Every structure is written in structure tokens, then in C-alpha cells.
Prior knowledge:
Layout: H1 3-15, H2 17-20, H3 25-33, H4 35-47, H5 52-78, H6 84-87, H7 106-121, H8 123-142, H9 148-168, H10 173-189
Helix pairs in contact: 3-8, 4-5, 5-7, 5-9, 7-8, 7-9, 8-9
Amino acid sequence: MSFSELNIDIFRAINDLGKEYTMFNPVVHFLAEYMIYVLALGLLVYWFTRTTKNRLMVIYAVISFVIARVLGKIAGSLYSNYQPFAELPHVNKLIEHEIDNSFPSDHTILFFSIGFLIFLFHKKTGWLWLVLALAVGISRIWAGVHYPFDVAAGALLGMLTALFVFWTAPKLSFINKLLAFYEKGEQRILPSKHKSDDKSKNF
């Protein structure tokens, strides 16, 4: 069996679940299309905890996504394929999507580059974001807009980038200086009884 055949077979196994278990399609549709707003809300909540650790985590997460997105574009220029619904017959398509290069999955890059970064900061609870990232990746296959290889490549890019940023960003002192400058201004506008903690030094 060739790689292409394996990719299609795994896609069919997941995508056909939507035909057999139609009651789950609304949930999958939400995961594939709208979970991005939950992720954005989660980052906002972390930011407004007003702790240095969480704010650095959010900054690193954004940096991680930007780098992963650039790498994804490079990968997409080296290898490409259209969405399954555009190439295969009888696909269970749950969301509208333009026909373009679906490799790698941008949604998967987004969720894994940020979700894995959160996990590295908060291992006790961060695994929930990894579960969410995996669910989103699977939902993109179930919804008919990505092949398993698109999702796997996006997840790998996202996690490797998050790990790289987690290791290297703390060495960039200007990030801490910019955050400190922002927090001084914020403290004047929205005074807080408790100053930002210094836990970021110990993660």
C-alpha cells in the first residue's frame, strides 16, 4: 500500500463516521469551525489573570503560532494537495471551504503551537488544551477539509515550534522589558491589589 492510499484510507475511516453517526456532526462542525474562538477566549482569560507567568505564556504562544505559520507556508510550497472534498467522491463535507492547498492544516498548526506551549507552562491542566487540539485536528478530517497527513504535519510543526520558543524566548530580555513597560501603564489605568507574580522565573 502506497503512502497516498494509506492517507486516503485513514481519511475515509474517520470521515465516514459522519455518515454513520450523524448525531455527532453538529459537535464536529463546532469543533472544526468555531473552536478557534474558544482558544482566543482562553488566551484572554490567561492574560487577564495578570500574572507574569501567564502573560509570558500568552506572548510565547503568539510567537510560536507566527513561526509555525511561516514554516507551514514553506512546507506548503514544497508539497501540496487539494482538500479531500475537492479530490474524492462521496465526502462527508460539513463546512464551507475554498479549494486551495490543504497541506498542512492551518487550524492544527494554530491549536498545537499554542496548546503545546500552554502544556509546557501548566502541565497539570495544559493537557486539556492538547486534547482540544487533537479533537480539532480530527474534526477537520471528519468535516472533509483535510487529510490525516495534513493534520499530522500541522501538529508536528506546531509542537516543535512551541518547544523551540519555550526554550529560546526566555533568553530574549526585550520581551520581559516590553511586558514590564505594558504592566506599568496598565497599573495606572487598572490598579491591581496584587502585583504580577514572579513565577515565570521558576517554570
